[in-house]
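Much of our argument rests on the idea that a fold can be written as discrete symbols. The record that follows shows the chain in one-letter code together with its fold in token form.
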Amino acid sequence: MLKQTLVVLTTLAGLAACGPEASDSSSSSASETPAQAVIQAEKLTNSSGPFETVRIERAGEDIEYVAVDTAGWLSYSVDIPEAGRYRVEVVARGNDSAGVWLEDYVGNPDDRTYNVTGTIPVVPDTAFATVRVEGSPFDAGLRPMRLHVSGGAVDIDRIIFTLMRPHRPSPVTLEQNMDGETWA
């Protein structure tokens, strides 16, 4: 009975952490700026295919962006300042069926693809627009990530990670044995 009670309490605590307050726009008071990481698209570390770095002048300022004509991915090293839930914003433009999504844990030992944003539709326009998803979980530190492009040509200016809610460690850690006949 004690094990069942512990699991129920841990589950309820986890659900409470995902309640309405999880959508707070900031983890800090109004006078503090939330933790943020901004990645310029042209600072990529690798790609699955061809891309072009384009420089334009916009409002008297030189702007660089990455143009991707086909489906594929662009790799980035992202330094996440604090573990927690983040708003992920992509400043981009594309055709009417284009979308992007972010992969975390690139090169993980279990050889899985971790899509942490779901596909975010890119606004079909000639001007850059910010598209976003809220609540993506990230651990702190330097992380290899991939921005995947699908559905057509996309121009990407930058990716912005803004902390919405810092991670609160669980007071109880449960471990499960995955050795033996049952798990073979």
Summary: The two ends are 28 Å apart (CA to CA). Confidence is low (pLDDT under 50) at residues 1-29. Helices lie at 2-17. DSSP finds one helix and twelve strands in the chain.
